[in-house]
Design goal:
The chain is mainly beta. The chain has one domain (3-77). The protein has helices at residues 3-10, 55-59, and strands at 12-17, 29-37, 40-41, 45-52, 69-77. It starts with a helix and ends in an 11-residue tail after the last strand. Bound molecules: zinc ion (ZN). The site of zinc ion has 7 residues, from loops.
Length: 88
């Protein structure tokens, strides 16, 4: 899932991504600065957790296609949860 798709799914406008070498599952967990939510200006960072369908999910009927978004959640963070960098 790219940034534009994540923005669309989460109703946000996203700024910089903190791409972290210590993040062992970068397709699943992403750290972005949030510029706006539903049109309201924001200045914080969020850790996004994306659950994308794999082949097993398609076989079991949980999803139609591999890569389909099954679940999306996020929490505000002040520090990178992987490397501890203070996010500004
Ligand atoms: Zn980091």
């Amino acid at each position: 899932m790219n940034k534009e798709q994540l923005e669309e799914e989460s109703g946000t406008i996203l700024g910089r991504e903190h791409t972290c070498e210590r993040n062992e599952i970068p397709d699943h967990l992403k750290v972005y600065r949030v510029i706006a939510i539903e049109g309201e200006a924001q200045t914080h960072w969020e850790l996004f957790s994306l659950w994308l369908a794999n082949e097993g999910d398609v076989e079991s009927g949980e999803a139609e296609t591999v890569g389909e978004l099954l679940n999306l959640s996020s929490i505000k963070v002040n520090y990178c949860p992987f490397c501890g960098l203070s996010l500004e």
